[in-house]
Amino acid sequence: MRANDSISIGQLAERTGVSVSAVRFYEARGLVSASRNAGGQRRFLRSDVRRIAFVLIAQKLGFTIAEIGDQLASLPQGRTPTQADWSQISARFGQVLDERIAGLTLMRDRLDGCIGCGCLSLKVCALYNPGDRIAARGPGPRYLLGDRRRKA
């Protein structure tokens, strides 16, 4: 790694807006990795700014550190990831986000009516789930989990 390709932990923290301890946490979890200079100081690739930016965005979208780590593990170590590398991660995350959006949309649209949970506390439940028939399909809010209502 050339000297101008690397930055200190303090510079990385400053550029990403996270604390030095957060950078250490991300390093401990394998989200970024450092080399050591002759004086034993951590040195990070400039491209680690983008990795940490990705971590911050992914966390805001509800992804866990483990899920983020799994995605970042597909990036090359020791070189700056290319646009193609990032596009592969984007496509995988996009698929998960599309599934989450579909689930949230379904929940938003059905939450005020019968959700197939078996409580039968709403008048509409007698229409959509008479006698709690949907319980035969399994536990939980069956209509929110994707089961379709069947006509009586």
TrEMBL record:
A Pfam match: MerR_1
Keywords per UniProt: 2Fe-2S, DNA-binding, Iron, Iron-sulfur, Metal-binding
Domain HTH merR-type, first and last residues per copy: 6-74
The UniProt record lists the keyword Iron-sulfur: yes
Protein name: Transcriptional regulator, MerR family
A GO BP entry: response to oxidative stress
Any one GO molecular function term: DNA binding
Keyword Transmembrane listed: no
